[in-house]
Amino acid sequence: LITDATKAKQAENCFWQAYQQCHTATLNFTRRSLDSGAIHAFTTVSNNGQCSISDAVQIYIVPSPPKPGTTYTCTGLTQQADGLHFASCGELGDIMVPNSSAQ
């Protein structure tokens, strides 16, 4: 559920531009289902001019609080018509952050 489609799209575009230019940026994204969810904090990281993305994620199952976080490195990022696609983020694999048209 996207609570504010315009702000979500702006945040995605901002993060995408930061990744393209290898500027520091963070995109927070929470995926919820009926009784569980994942809280992601994607961050761009510059390593000697090469840009990468880290994903600090916390998994939770209701009614328990989120478990301690794990950080993964994603192998890439693409912006597609349905949202941002983070590639190969550790054991979580590919993660898609939907944009306003993919509600």
Task: Give an overview in words.
The structure is a single chain. With 103 residues, this protein is an alpha+beta fold. The chain is built from 1 helix and 7 strands, in the order H-E-E-E-E-E-E-E. It has one helix spanning 5-21; strands spanning 26-32, 36-47, 50-61, 70-74, 76-80, 83-87, 95-98. The protein has a 4-stranded antiparallel β-sheet with strand order 1-2-3-4. Strand 2 (36-47) and strand 3 form a beta hairpin. The radius of gyration is 14 Å and the shape is globular. The mean pLDDT is 88.
What features would you highlight for this structure?
103 residues, alpha+beta, 4-stranded antiparallel β-sheet, 3-stranded antiparallel β-sheet, 1 helix
Quick summary of this structure?
The chain is built from one helix and seven strands; from the N terminus they run αβββββββ.
Helix fraction?
10-25%
How many distinct helices?
A: 1
Output the strand order for the largest sheet. Answer: 1-2-3-4
Task: Determine the N-to-C terminus distance.
Answer: 6 Å
Described by its quaternary structure, the protein is: single chain
Q: Classify the beta-strand content into a percent band.
A: over 45%
Tally of extended strands? 7
Tell me about the biggest sheet?
Answer: 4 strands, antiparallel
Shape: globular
Q: Which whole number gives the mean pLDDT? A: 88
Unreliable stretches covering 5 or more consecutive residues? none
Order of helices and strands: HEEEEEEE
**What is the SS-derived class?**
alpha+beta
